[in-house]
Amino acid sequence: MRELKFGEQTVRVKATPLALLFYKQEFGGDLLADMTKMAGGLKEEPEQEADISGLDTVAILQLIWAMAKADAFGGPSFPSFINWLGSFEDVDFTDESLLKGALEEAAHGFFRKGLQASTQGRKPRKTR
Asked: Which residues in the chain belong to E strands, given as ranges?
């Protein structure tokens, strides 16, 4: 679980299998496939700010919404994407912690074994 700042508001997000389902139900696409496209849109050179010119900002917001809905599961009803988005006055996409936090939470939740193995220099083992 991670907290992201949207202007003055804080949004709790959690990358769980429920987020994958909620994303598919609301947007009709596959979250992991779309996330791969999102990550490809971010270009970062060492010692320079990230270039967000190729970033699909709506896709990032959709990812965050699905993870926020997953975090809120079991609580009161969660708003639709459009109503949720309408509850924010502003979103600062130049805030590195917002983009980085959302993508890191998704990577940690959806690719945990792959990340652990890659940080240890090994390939993930196949399970039977």
From this structure: 2-6, 9-13
pTM over 0.70: yes
Taking the C-alpha atoms of residue 30 and residue 89, their distance in angstroms, rounded to an integer, is 28
Using an 8 Å Cβ cutoff, are 97 and 16 in contact? no
- Segments making up each domain of the chain, as ranges: 2-119
The pLDDT tens digits along the chain (128 residues) read 999 998 889 999 999 999 999 999 999 999 998 888 776 655 555 555 555 667 788 999 999 999 999 999 988 899 999 999 999 998 888 888 998 899 899 989 998 765 544 434 444 444 44
